[in-house]
Amino acid sequence: MPALISPTNVTRTGLTAAVICGLVLVLSAASGWAVSAAGLAVLVMVVMTLRLAEQATTQLANHRDLETETRFLRQQFERLAAAAAGPVAGESSRPVVNADLPLDRQLSALAAQARALHSSYFDLWNERARLTVVLENLDCGVVVVSPQGEIVLANVAAKKQFPVSQPMIGSPLAETIRHRELLAKVREVAIDRSPREVVVDERDASGRRQVLRILCASVPYEKDVSAVLLVANDESEIREIEETRREFVANVSHELKTPLAAIKGYVETAELAIQDDPEAAKYFVSQIHDQTRRLESLVSDMLTLARAQAGTQNLRLTAVDLHAVVAESIATYTPVAGAKRIALSHDRGGRATVMVRADREAAITIANNVIGNAIRYTPEGGEVIANVTSDGEFGIISVRDTGIGIPEHEQRRVFERFYRTEQSRQHSSVGTGLGLAIVKNLTQSQGGQVRLWSQPGEGSKFDILLPLQSANRSAKQLAAAREAKP
User: Fold this and answer.
1) In three state form, how does the secondary structure of 5-44 look?
2) What confidence tens digit (pLDDT) does each residue in 287-343 have?
3) Entry pTM
4) Which residues, including other chains, have CB under 8 Å from residue 133's CB and lie 6 or more apart?
5) Which residues, including other chains, have CB under 8 Å from residue 187's CB and lie 6 or more apart?
6) Are strands 355-358 and 87-88 parallel, antiparallel or unpaired?
7) pLDDT, tens digit, for every residue of 414-435?
8) What's the Cα-to-Cα distance from 335 to each of 234, 341, 372, rounded to whole Å?
9) Strand extents, DSSP E, 360-402
């Protein structure tokens, strides 16, 4: 770039020209007006000269700034080109750009590389987002423990499985999960990098059993350092189902074995007595008949329970009059109650008809089981009262008795299959132990609920809630009602 004219030279040249012009004009002037005009011309030239000098000064400053920025950019470009001439990470034989190319070509290559890196970064970011969504929605808990023993990753399921008051991420594992065997397995995996498995079987503060099967494995962390990955599967429900199944099989086997053994014994005895003592043989045959009825009742109840647990697929939901259902059940059990001198009544209370959306046969089964249980566990001379009400959402069958009652700690368990309270075992009873289990499952399968109040020595009150025909409840509300616990 050619050198700019110095402001000093501009000023010096302009002033010299002004003085010379002024002298020429003065010497050649013939009058005072000419002298004044010459002076004015000199003044104008001086002002113009100073203005030109100022502009020259500004241009010179801008030129110097431009030169400084140019040198800086050149240095940066040279450094960038030198760096680009090095190899790509992991590819020692191929540089990012060719250092022999002109600077503009090198910059173009760098721009292309930058675009490729930006695309790769965007793809990685999307992949990370997808993995995060998957991780947070896993049912199993996932925890990553750093080589320093701190939790660096924990998904939502893990935070539920290991509830702590402080945040899990950033906390030491030993302070978050206080299980000696699990901590020992984590240390072993950190040392030899071989996977381990441990089962944690504990009860939480509320007494709920929690069974976690935890896989501990080594995963890459930083360079040659590994972290420990914990994957926890909650097997609590599976274990509970397995225990319930084993208990059910054991109970069914016991309940079936008892009448079968009695039948076998009576048959053998009747065979021996049929010739010598026909009256005794008749008695044994009647006992065989009684045990057969008991066996038939047990099988029938088991089939009814299976039907109830199948949900609504085996039910025909229609409009059902609860007063009619209770009246039919009362008529069925009036002879039984009369034999025990128990006052069995249906308290209509002048109320209007209560229509519910239910399966009529299922509703009658529910009423029969509740009223039958009330009569069975009420002493002679007691009272059993059944009535029907509604609360605007449910139709309610209420059965109240003056029987032996149920202790509070056993009230939740009476709805389990084959469960009998201590008092009922001491009380003379010929039930199958499935009645209340059938009541609970049939009620819940129709979107209803079961409520129980009982006091030992005073009696019990069962409320069966079934959705009103006019309630028009949604599927979600019905599902929520089925999950309700008695």
Assistant:
1) CCHHHHHHHHHHHHHHHHHHHHHHCCCHHHHHHHHHHHHH
2) 777 778 777 777 776 777 777 666 666 778 899 999 999 999 999 889 888 888 999
3) 0.49
4) none
5) none
6) unpaired
7) 787 777 666 665 554 556 677 7
8) 52, 10, 12
9) 383-390, 394-401
pLDDT value at residue 461: 92
Q: What is the dihedral of CA 114, 120, 122, 126, to 10 degrees?
A: -170
Nearest to 397 by CA among 371, 375, 416: 371
Strand, coil or helix: 182: helix
pLDDT in the model for residue 79? 67
Residue-wise burial string across 393-414, b where 16 or more C-beta atoms lie within 10 A, e elsewhere: ebbbbbbbbbbbbbeeebbeeb
Residue 81 in tokens: 């080109």
Q: What average pLDDT is seen over the chain?
A: 77
Q: Which of 214, 210, 172 is nearest to 196 (CA)?
A: 214
Contacts of 41 (CB under 8 A, 6+ apart): 21, 22, 25
Name the nearest CA neighbour of 382 among 349, 337, 347: 337
User: Encoding tokens for residue 483?
Assistant: 């999950």
Token pair, residue 342, equals: 């128990």
Integer Cα distance of 144 and 123 in angstroms: 24
Q: Which residue pairs from 63-69 have beta carbons closer than 8 angstroms and sit at least 24 positions apart in sequence?
A: 63/1, 63/4
* pLDDT greater than 80 at residue 159: yes
Residue 192 pairs in a beta bridge with none
- Give the closest residue to 143 by CA, choosing from 233, 64, 57, 207: 233
Tell me the three state secondary structure of residue 290: helix
User: What is the Cα–Cα distance from 269 to 261, expressed in whole angstroms?
Assistant: 12
> What's the pLDDT score for residue 1?
44
Sequence-distant (≥ 6) Cβ neighbours of residue 433 within 8 angstroms: 251, 255, 417, 418, 419, 420
Q: How far apart are CA 478 and CA 447, in angstroms?
A: 5
